[in-house]
Design goal:
Blueprint: E1 9-11, H1 12-24, H2 28-38, E2 51-53, H3 66-80, H4 91-96
Antiparallel strand pairs: 1-2
Length: 105
């Protein structure tokens, strides 16, 4: 997801948030496609880049940010059902859960 119009760069966090929203709505295939665009944008230590410029794919900024890595992991979980927490953002889960009377629709 492109972040600012005057500086053409893509942020990993916002793109992960988009995939999380898509997965939450049940659009798992679309979420997987978008996540695949960013899943290899990582440093050698496995942490995700903050972002990169377009079209030259230069890492920018070069920060290693915890929330970027957190949302990328949460998005991967929502798409690939890696942990029991993968359903936290799933509309279908909350609509059919025994907890649904406690959740506003």
């Amino acid at each position: 997801m492109r972040c600012v119009s005057d500086k053409p760069w893509v942020t990993i966090a916002e793109t992960s948030e988009l995939t999380l929203a898509l997965a939450g709505m049940g659009n798992i295939e679309q979420a997987g496609i978008v996540f695949n665009w960013i899943c290899d944008r990582r440093y050698n230590d496995g942490s995700y880049w903050c972002g990169f410029t377009c079209p030259d794919l230069i890492i920018w900024p070069e920060d290693k940010i915890t929330w970027t890595n957190a949302v990328a992991l949460i998005a991967a979980d929502a798409i690939y059902n890696l942990t029991p927490a993968s359903v936290l953002f799933s509309h279908r889960f909350w609509a059919t859960s025994e907890l649904s009377p406690f959740v506003d629709s």
